Amino acid sequence: MFLARLPLGAAVAATVALAASTAHAHIGLHPGDFAASFWAGLGHPFGGLDHLLAMVAVGLWAMQQGGRALYAVPTAFVASMAAGFALGFGGIDLPFVETGIVLSVLALGLAVALAVKPPLALALPVTAAFSLCHGFAHGAEMPAESPVLLYAAGMLLGTALLHGLGLLAARQAQSRALPLLTRAAGAATAMAGLVLLIG
Question: What is the pTM for the complete model shown?
Fold first, then answer.
């Protein structure tokens, strides 16, 4: 499977294993609570249109760029998202988070629509900056009773799945010689970002 070859897959697997090994340290929680926390984290990236669009757009954009960006851009997003999650969960103040999230939808959508192919030295920090905002929001909104590692593992896996969806969609468009479909998806994402920004 394509995603299994990404370094991201190993990182997510390690996070899940670590979460499972420490989950029983939470006194007063039942096994069902651990599963619920993981599934809650997994579903969170799918629960907001802004999160969902940005994460799929990362996959679309990575496939457009090709080469090292194919795995480096999604990996940078997930890694920075984990850092942002830690900041949000820890109660660290990060200004303009909601604005950063909405701008990520607009900017990533435009990057896909215009098929922008910047050098990785630019693409990675831009991706990471947007991802930090998404991760912060997830960490700040995490239910207080959830085991943090299980919730984070689910959230990171959900993010990786959305990146994978974008990667596979763009790959299918390329294999059918229809790259304009990917660009059209980017344009729709950018329009949604603009609506969210104005609204």
Answer: 0.82
- The Cα–Cα gap between 76 and 15 comes to 16
Residue type, 158: G
Q: What is the CB-side half-sphere exposure of residue 53 using CA atoms within 13 A?
A: 26
| Phi, psi dihedral angles at 44 (to 5 degrees) | -60, -45
Measured CA angle at 144 (ends 138, 150), to 5 deg:
65
For residue 166, pLDDT over 60 is answered with yes
What count of other Cβ atoms lies within 10 Å of the Cβ of residue 172? 13
What is the rounded CA–CA span in Å between residue 155 and residue 113? 27
**Smallest Cα–Cα separation from 126: which of 99, 150, 153, 100?**
100
Dist CA 140 CA 89 (whole Å): 5
What is the per-residue pLDDT across 35-50, written as a single tens digit (0 to 9) for each? Answer: 888 999 999 899 899 9
The identity of residue 50, as a single letter, is D
CA gap 101, 193 in Å, rounded = 9
Question: How many CB atoms lie under 10 A from the CB of residue 84?
Answer: 27
Residue whose structure tokens are 């990667």: 167
- Spatial distance between the Cα atoms of 62 and 13, rounded to a whole number of angstroms: 22
Which amino acid, one-letter code, is at 61?
W
Q: What are the tens digits of pLDDT across the range 84-101?
A: 999 999 989 889 999 999
